[in-house]
Amino acid sequence: MTIKKHIPNAITCCNLLCGCLAIVQAFEGNLVYASYLVGMGAIFDFFDGFAARMLKVTSPIGKDLDSLTDMVTFGIVPGVVMFRLINFTSYYTIVDGHATLLSSWEVNGKTDSLASLVIMYSAFIITVFSAIRLAKFNNDTRQTDSFIGVPTPAVAIFICSIPLIMEYSNIGINLNPYLLIVISIVFSLLLVSEIPLFALKFKHFKWKDNEIRFVFLGLSIIMLIALQFIGIPLIIILYILMSVISNLTKKKLPS
Fold first, then answer.
1. In 3D, which of 39, 28, 178 has the Cα closest to residue 101?
2. 36: how many CB neighbours lie within 10 A of its CB?
3. CA 131 to CA 137: how far, in whole Å?
4. What does pTM read for this prediction?
5. Which of 166, 192, 35, 178 is nearest to 99 (CA)?
6. How far apart are the C-alpha atoms of 60 and 74, rounded to whole Å?
7. Percent of the chain with pLDDT over 90
8. pLDDT band at 53 (very low <50, low <70, confident <90, very high)
9. Which residue has the higher pLDDT, 43 or 253?
10. Burial of residue 212 (number of CB atoms within 10 Å: 0-12, 13-18, 19+)
């Protein structure tokens, strides 16, 4: 019994470890490795809650540990990744059909003006709003079975999919710092928005009450198979759209 109650927290700590390693990789410029680690963290994040529900060992400590871990893996890491992307965004070349980012010391004539610094450090708005979102989540009784605002893992996965697409897709990508800033601002606002979104929390695996989850997972698998890494940000957009459509449909139904 004692060991059982620690299993979900142990899985959460695996998520935290992934986040710590991802920060190191991101600061070293290995954004692809950092993105993979965020993906692994997201898997652990799903299974720690799943294990807690299956083993019926939820606790306030586990909830706080989960939020603190999410702040690292899904709050700090996407901010650092976006910071590096903005820093590098004008300095990459296409090699063998892949976008290869150059490190800052390989770029001649890089400016260090105040405007450039403001643009680069604006990436951490994601981290700030992630902290606000997690603080709200821990004190919002409306978010026991669903979410109000886009959850931090979804935002982190969207942002960390950008390096993967640049590395592995064959499409031409021409990002610029202003587009990345817009992405940062939009998703920061979505984090603290009042948009209700369904959660991937299965209390049982019957079709009833899980229709939207099964449909979403099915479509997500199809998009990943068909589009590979390009499908990742589209899945996040699909998640938001399906939640909005589901909410609108429910409102139109007679009470």
1. 28
2. 18
3. 10
4. 0.84
5. 166
6. 20
7. 44
8. confident
9. 43
10. middle
- What would the two tokens of residue 205 be? 């695996």
Q: Tokens 């931090």 correspond to what residue?
A: 152
DSSP, collapsed to helix, strand or coil, labels residue 235 as: helix
Query: CB of 134 within 8 A of CB of 152?
Result: yes
Residues 6+ apart with CB under 8 A from 103: 29, 88
Q: How far apart are CA 20 and CA 23, in angstroms?
A: 5
Structure confidence by residue, pLDDT tens digits, 162-214: 999 988 876 655 677 888 999 999 999 999 998 888 887 766 667 777 788 89
Burial class (CB in 10 A: 0-12, 13-18, 19+), 129: buried
Domains of the chain: 2-137+151-188 (1.20.120)
User: How far is it, in rounded angstroms, from Cα 23 to Cα 216?
Assistant: 30
196 in Cβ contact with 242 (< 8 Å) = no
